[in-house]
Amino acid sequence: MTTLVSPIPGNPVEPFLRSDRMPHIWCPGCGIGTTVNCFAEALIESKIDLKTLALVSGIGCTGRVAGYVKLDSFHTTHGRAIPFATGLKLANPGLNVVVYSGDGDLSAIGGNHLIHAARRNIDLKVICVNNLIYAMTGGQTAPTTPGHATTSTSPYGTFEPSFNLPHLVEAAGAVYVARWTTFHVRQLARSITEAFNKKGFSFIEVISPCPTLYQRRNKMGDGLETMKYYKEKSKTKHGAPTSEVGLTLNGEIIVGKFVDRDRPDYSTLLKAQMHESLGDKYVDYDEEQGYACSADGGCEEDSCH
Amino acid sequence: MKADPRGVLTGTHFMDGDHACCEGALAAGARFAAGYPITPSTEVVERFAQRVPTVGGCFIQMEDELAASITLQGGVWGGAKAFTVTSGPGFSLMMEHIGYAAMTETPCVFVDVQRGGPSTGLPTLPAQGDMMQARWGSHGDYEIIALCPNSPQECFDLTIKAFNLAEEFRVPVMFMMDEVVGHMTEKVVIPPADEIEVTPRKHTHKSVEDYLPYGTNGDMVPEMAHAGEGYKFHVTGLTHDERGYPNMTPKMQQKLVTRLQNKILSATDRISMFEEEGTADADVVVVSYGITSRVAQRAIEMARADGLKVGKLRLITAWPFPENKIRQLAAHIKAFVVPELNLGQMVREVERAAAGKAQTFLVPHAGGSVHHPEEILAFIQEAVR
Fold it and tell me: What residue of A is the nearest CA neighbor of B80?
């Protein structure tokens, strides 16, 4: 019997994962694990203090990311990762809050929260793994499913027009919008790092295969075939007008950083308005005490001083 | 511990129930609220939005009640005491997140200023039609606590109690007001901060290595950590083990859901608050809560003037239901009379607890106004016979 020996002692992303929860639930060829790897690379690259980092997921295959990362992590309800993350960020502005969820969770059931968080420019980093269907429930049509694709609830082909997510979030107000596929691992890690250095609502879409349901039903091959497809069909166009990056069943996939702009985030606007209207009466969030002060024992507790 | 004086508006005020509820929340230490406008509850968050920036806190108006009811929970895990405020239609939308709060043991308060339903119903008029929804509205088995104020003063006092219970038991507490109590203006006395007892969060003092997010020590209520403290804990609405990790086995389900129920049910007698008077030699006891209790008071006085032996039991805690108290009374009275601004909700609990030992009469009212005392009196007279 041969014992496999890792060529390097320990995987560099291991410190970011709850290894006691392995193996994960994702299928062979699924792209979600690849995105988590890129996310971990970005954590290394950005040197972000992990203590300040919280990750919030909704429901679905990508929603399971929260359970596998060794961070403060919240697996919330379907579609509501963004409003939960909003509360977390507002109650403790010192946190770096990442929302990591799927296309169905974020753009269908959670679509209203997506556009309003972008409008408010809440300082959240949203990573949207887009596998073009509802995978966890068996491959049903999503708002992102391209026309003519076959799904379990569109057995004769999808005919509903689909969402172009970069266009949607740019229109709603996101300050950073990028799209990559799971083939573009270095570019994706770089984009996540950039988003960490950006204040405001950042949105990174990752086109990712679901070989079990989407690729199989649409006769697009396995995970490896999909990587070849992504490689051949992807075209990097930084700054491309997001109105022109919609996805089709077999066509070109425009990838790149589409939007990188600055406008004040929610907390900056809130503070400015309160200072203007209330002057000295405004009691600002305190970096040391937070708003949390009263939940945790008021100012009598040692932890507050 | 004592209340943070910054949030306490000490003094004697002429104030409506909605505003008193807001002041109660501030006194209790709430520094975060997420809401969505809905009549007749909006005045609570309007006042909070005005007041909280001056005491160190934050209000956000969300895009809908689904968002508000989970945003507040994000706030709680970020370290704040937090609440949301709504009325019937919004309360319906919040049900999933009441279940999430129960499952994840997120201490928080949901204020429901009840109006006539179903659906859009009577936006500006009272009802008590959400009492069963407060208990059973989300899917699965769980327990909550629900309080029913009957005056602006109680809107202040009991809101503090609601936050304290939420923290003690790590449970969502339903604050079941109604349109009349919310919009009624009366004297409200707010004591000095050092006379207001506030329950702090059950925050862990354990080391990162020793901390089990859902581990318990006898009292069935786990210690809590906040995001950003280095515990790197996991919270999920899935059935989970003591580490907070998903564990979807029948065994874990049995253990977790039973604990979530028992941490409340086993403390029912300690949690229960009611006002009892004249029950010792009563033939009939009127069981009421919220605004209806004030109409019932008049009916009881009219009946006593006619020489009838009528007792009063006013439920301040609706859930967990004080069934021991009902059982005790049922053993020596003829009947319960239960007026409600609905077509029969809490009366079912009274009937269940009475278990045939005493008769139960509902005084129904579909909502839109309060009862006439004479309607309740007529049932008392019938019940005595």
Answer: A292
